[in-house]
Amino acid sequence: MESLDNLNSINDFNIAKQVIPGGVNSPVRAFKSVGGTPPFITKGNGAYITDVDNNTYIDFVQSWGPLIFGHCDKDIEKAVIESVKNGLSFGAPTLLETALAKEVISLVDGIEKIRFVSSGTEATMSAIRLARAYTNKEDIIKFEGCYHGHSDALLVSAGSGLATFGNPSSPGVPSDFTKHTLIATYNDLKSVESCIALSNSKGSGVACIILEPIAGNMGLVPSESEFLEGLRLLCDKHGILLILDEVMSGFRASLSGSQSFYKVCGDLTTFGKVIGGGMPVGAFGGRDDIMRLLSPSGAVYQAGTLSGNPVAMHAGLVALQKLRTNPTIYQHLESLALQLVKGLQEICTSFKIPLQTCVRGSMFGFFFNANPVKNFQDALKSDTKMFAAFHQGMLNAGVYFAPSQFETGFICTTMDSKLIDEVLEKAHKVLLEISTHRI
Ligand SMILES: *Cc1c(COP(=O)(O)O)cnc(C)c1O
């Protein structure tokens, strides 16, 4: 198999590990689940990234979603430079915040007011605080396999059996901090009903249900329509707020996120990734009667020194304006995503390698799995050794997929059909090699 000259990356990784835990500032970047060394990136250009050894890769990570226009988009670059020249940050209101707020409100149904923060983690954490204040209840329901950032109450794993209060999934999280978090099974309404019953009998009642309507953090696993519609009904019936975490799917699956796939509005919706055009931006928004409880109009405290940062707001604003004025972008991106997963499917079928695939707009996913994947437990049955071999082979051939079977891939607007064909040709070689060496 082709092999990569990555001596500089290996060296740089070793040096980084001396000063940064694990050498990275976010764990999945360390390539632990696929093995090998992460390439150290020096620059990006459109669909491509280049590393310290001068290898160039076709990039299907795109900074984990934000870069829908690819690296170094000229319009976003121009907006950022313009803003930088006016000053990096003021900690005072600017017109860019109002403009971006109006843009999001016009694109996504159910959002009447919105607040900007600097990460998806902050957005979900704050939305949950607000939901608890609004409902005057303490328990929350999240789904196994959904990721909503790294705040304490969300770092939970299911206890044994269905419908349980969560246990901390990370050392350092007191069990007191997760005792209000109930864990349900994705695409399984019965498990949600059990959680609500448990909370009503033994807990404080459920303040909110938070989910990724199109889950992208256990691989790509969309909600089934009946599931999402059922959640909406359950929430209305029990006075529970529905929080749609669209940090990944917002402006990625479609211009209105999950809303062009489902007729379901959240009471609150969270954003991140694309909303910042590549700069650190998160946001949460929703109904006015809920949002107005936020300080300073209400009593629920939430703040941020760099929230609404002008450089980041400008990048996000230009990104959303570009998307709104070129609505066919999503069809283009989706056709490329479909070309990619259909191609992979055909290759795998010819080598008798089981594969499940999925596309939602510019998001794509594939599992080396013989059965459909509807929840986290299904996803875990995937062949992660096969994924690791595929990932390594593709990386050596110059294609950068997310270094885990349980992540989503992203198409950017500078990709085209010829590029996808090129990727499929490489995938054919890699999978041929894997299948001939398989015992
Ligand atoms: C990425 C992500 C987050 C966390 O966002 P950060 O900016 O990394 O804090 C939350 N929810 C979902 C659905 C995400 O994909």
Automatic annotation (TrEMBL):
Quote the SUPFAM superfamilies the UniProt record gives. PLP-dependent transferases
Q: Organism's domain of life?
A: Bacteria
Per the record, what are the reactions this protein catalyses? (S)-4-amino-5-oxopentanoate = 5-aminolevulinate
GO MF annotation, one: glutamate-1-semialdehyde 2,1-aminomutase activity
Sites bearing N6-(pyridoxal phosphate)lysine, chain numbering: K273
Q: Name one Pfam family in it.
A: Aminotran_3
Tell me the pathway: Porphyrin-containing compound metabolism; protoporphyrin-IX biosynthesis; 5-aminolevulinate from L-glutamyl-tRNA(Glu): step 2/2
Keyword Isomerase part of the UniProt annotation: yes
Name its cellular compartments: Cytoplasm
Q: Which UniProt keywords apply?
A: Cytoplasm, Isomerase, Porphyrin biosynthesis, Pyridoxal phosphate
Q: What is its main location?
A: cytoplasm
Could you say which cofactors this protein requires?
pyridoxal 5'-phosphate
Q: What class of enzyme is it?
A: isomerase
Please state which protein family the record places this protein in: Belongs to the class-III pyridoxal-phosphate-dependent aminotransferase family. HemL subfamily.
Q: Which NCBIfam families match?
A: hemL (TIGR00713), PRK00062.1 (NF000818)
Q: What is this protein identified as?
A: Glutamate-1-semialdehyde 2,1-aminomutase
Q: Which species is the source of this protein? A: Helicobacter turcicus
